[in-house]
Amino acid sequence: MHEILLYYTYTAIADPEELCRAQRVLCERLGLKGRIIIAPEGINGTVEGLVESTAQYIAETTSEPRFADMSFKRSIGTGSAFAKLFVRARSEIVSAHLGAADVNPAQITGKYLQPEQLREWIRSGKEFYIVDMRNDYEHAVGFFKNSILPSLKHFRDLPSILPRLAHLKNKTVVTVCTGGVRCEKASGFLLTQGFADVYQLHNGIVSYMEKYPAEDFLGKLYVFDGRVTMGFGRPEQNQVVVGRCAQCAEPNEQFVNCAEPSCHAHFICCAACVSAKGEAFCSWRCQLIHKARSMVEWLRLAARHAKVAVK
Ligand SMILES: [Zn+2]
Ligand SMILES: [Zn+2]
To answer: In this structure, which topology does domain 104-237 adopt according to CATH?
Structure first.
């Protein structure tokens, strides 16, 4: 049986390249595939392998004192969630590129809110606001009831959503994301911007869903591996489909990439709205651009043949 691990920790890493090499050797030995990003600020990874191998990976990685407290979110794998192993050193473990406004979660971050506490808050009638820090295509397929869904195209656009959250500066805010790694920065960022009472859902939506499937989070959880989306609980519990086909607006959860090369947007499209050629477009605009381009190509080809014919 295969298992997928999702994990991160913010801790100072003096030589990311060296840790990359060690992690690569470890993963190759255990036959793990996936994606691990290592930066001076920490490690962020998701890997898949046989259950014995992922257990061994956890044991060996957490034997290092700096990773001893790292929590691993485990879910059932498919054996093909990742095509290969990708281990890279980067400047950040999540690309925030906040520049001068950069946040080091080791210094400033929101208070941790455990899934149990969030569930209790939701039921207590307490005044607080859940802000979803994921990208727009992620919450297109699932989100917390009554949460605020700022339209982030990329996590680095974080500063651009501040005006939309300005009315929450003196309120209680809970940031949420898939596994928690983005919230460490996003919640810290809100604190640096003058937000007074900021919490973050500890270990993310995935941990909440494991404990409380089909309760307060509607739809499916978007994940960055071959599964694309993840359901929780028994199938009969997960009946709510919040995703909508971008073309016909019918309920759907199938992600495709826009066939227009200049766009490549990741979006939901039902089978009926994919063309016979297997092409899907996120918008009429992209479809028009694409049509115009093939028309120009066709005219060029026709002109060339015409020249040959004249000769
Ligand atoms: Zn459709
Ligand atoms: Zn498009």
So the answer is: Oxidized Rhodanese; domain 1 (3.40.250)
